[in-house]
């Protein structure tokens, strides 16, 4: 899918450099179509479109599961959520399979406040995210006129499609049009269901059931659209200032087993302040890492001297930044012993 999405990326990203196109959305011979994809007997769950406390990420793509492509979008999303103070609770990778997508989308929408999907919205037959999520919530797939108009205005055909015409029916036009057919609920304003966050891009963020946000799998587009969505998310955060969580790193030369007892006791104390204590081994490296994560900065800072002493460590800004110093000290000590 990501190979296909690479083609979609070129199609979408051309709009970054080619803001104008000789084609106009007016005069199209095509009328909106309605493709029914309502799941028989489905009762849509109601997503949370109020305050955002929790999040989940659904990566869709056979190529990821098959090892052909490395997923970077979930890592980007994790950092995005951390910086906003959103509690990311789940990341899943699933196949381009309708039943899998339907089940995961409904479950995540029901369980988490902010859900993002990545992948499966290209022009080919096996890009099935839109239709599958529409089925999950009993919605039809309809041509979204604004998306179609923006596509015509902001994109140009690939160099291999020199004879392409926006007003002449063709397989290529059908494939492009497919990317503008979204899950749409006529009982709600379309402006709440298809959001444009970058004036240079025609691709929308399709929002279904109030909290499922469908994004492309191409990393550059995924990241750009997610960042563009941020101003709409901040007012709904648990912390309206959007300050997010705070992380403190302490580098320690001690083995995890040697400090496990202390960290267990510290974790119980810190939990009352909403602070989580973590321990992360760094295999093959001279030092491990202890983390403090939370929002009570003053309390977390007060713990630093205690933690440094208990784990015989030092505070660092970036994990591994003191590895070189540790090696220098070890080499110096080794040299002293040899000279002695």
Strand proportion, as a percent range, falls in 15-25%
* Secondary-structure element series: HEEHHEHEHEHHEEEEHEHEEHEH
Helix content: 25-40%
- Our measurement of the CA-to-CA distance between the termini, rounded to an integer number of angstroms, reads 63 Å
Determine the mean pLDDT: 84
Instruction: Count up the helices.
Output: 11
Number of extended strands: 13
What can be said about the biggest beta sheet?
6 strands, mixed
CATH class of the largest domain: Alpha Beta
Q: Rg from C-alpha positions?
A: 25 Å
Pfam families: FLAD1_M (PF24102), MoCF_biosynth (PF00994)
GO molecular function, one term: FAD diphosphatase activity
Domain MoaB/Mog: 56-236
Region (Disordered): 313-340
What keywords describe this structure?
alpha+beta, Molybdenum Cofactor Biosythetic Enzyme, Chain A, Alpha-Beta Plaits, 2 domains, 6-stranded mixed sheet, 4-stranded antiparallel sheet, 11 helices, 39% helix, 18% strand, disordered N terminus
What does this structure look like?
Residues 319-330 have a biased composition (Acidic residues). The protein is an alpha+beta fold and 340 residues long. It has helices at 2-17, 62-65, 73-84, 98-111, 129-136, 145-154, 171-178, 219-233, 256-271, 297-310, 323-339; strands at 34-35, 54-60, 87-94, 114-118, 141-143, 181-183, 194-195, 205-208, 212-215, 246-252, 276-280, 288-294, 314-316. Helix 3 (73-84) packs parallel to helix 8. The longest helix is centred in the C-terminal third of the chain and has 17 residues, at 323-339. It starts with a helix and ends with a helix.
